[in-house]
From TrEMBL:
<dbReference type="GO" id="GO:0003887">
    <property type="term" value="F:DNA-directed DNA polymerase activity"/>
</dbReference>
<dbReference type="Pfam" id="PF03603">
    <property type="entry name" value="DNA_III_psi"/>
</dbReference>
<dbReference type="GO" id="GO:0008408">
    <property type="term" value="F:3'-5' exonuclease activity"/>
</dbReference>
<dbReference type="GO" id="GO:0006260">
    <property type="term" value="P:DNA replication"/>
</dbReference>
<dbReference type="InterPro" id="IPR004615">
    <property type="entry name" value="DNA_pol_III_psi"/>
</dbReference>
<dbReference type="InterPro" id="IPR036654">
    <property type="entry name" value="DNA_pol_III_psi_sf"/>
</dbReference>
<protein>
    <submittedName>
        <fullName>DNA polymerase III subunit psi</fullName>
    </submittedName>
</protein>
Amino acid sequence: LEGSQISSPALDELKANPKARSALWQQICEYEHDFFPHDG
């Protein structure tokens, strides 16, 4: 998607590393409106 870029570590690292999961969720929340535009 134009304007949105999320970087994610490997799935195994996400399973083992709570900080990696937290960082990924923060990115998802930051770009949420780019992925799921809300009209009105």
